[in-house]
Specification:
mainly alpha
Amino acid sequence: MNTTNTIQTKDGVAASRPRWLGYALATTFLWGVWGAFAGLPSQHGFPETLIYVVWALTMVPPALFVLARAGWSVRHDGRAIAYGLAIGLLGAGGQMVLFYAVKVGPTYLIFPLISLSPVITIMLSFLFIRERTGLMGLGGIVLAICALPLFDYTPGDAPQQYGLWFVMALGVLVAWGLQAYFIKLANASMDVESIFFYMTASALLFIPFALAMTDFSQPINYGPEGPLLAAATQALNAVGALTLVYAFRHGKAIMVSPLVNAGAPLLTTVIAMALAASLPTGYRLIGIGLSLAAALLLSLQPDDGTSA
């Protein structure tokens, strides 16, 4: 599979530009902007469970777009259905579990924990599909993993009791790490359009559960700052999921996963910082520095896995 585009330098010498990097950076941008504004609907009285419903529905337009380009062809053999449902159910199911976890546990510990999901992806890709990278890529992976928990980490004043929320957060971590790994596996035998179709179908399947979890006895904002704002932000999430599948198709999971998962929180932090006209301090500042270094190393690592 060709994973690079050939470009000409000023000297006329051909240089390779990894295709995966463009898709990964697109996902980073879309998810980074989404992360900065994703909490606004719930702050304006629109429940997170209904935000899930909106997100599932926003998956439909990009799915229809890529399916139309592919001639409305969807792989439906046993392997394709198994991979598709595994990817979709792990992603959507993890999201549903996360909704409950943040209700019963501390978000400042939950999100740094689940941000380590690339560790699962990297470990499985290294062991079972023999993905390798050079020294620059390895350094970028290590820095990205170190940076991930720092964006949301806020030390508490008192020790936390590790109860059900901790088990659920670990479940989300494993689910999303496995999802990324299966996306990479599926790309070897499936087209992007079929993968995203099953991701969308699985997201839609969980809508009844999200509605059942919603407390409709509480006031709900159905105005523009509720579902419409949620649709605008979740559309970024949905399109980012599509570009992520393309990134995994053309690049190594051990490179794509840490770059996206470190880069998106970095952009979210920068946008939030600009809107609040404040500078990050402490752990978040360290996370920004590590993410910038990780992104640089991952983007400079040659595609052939050799050291630069």
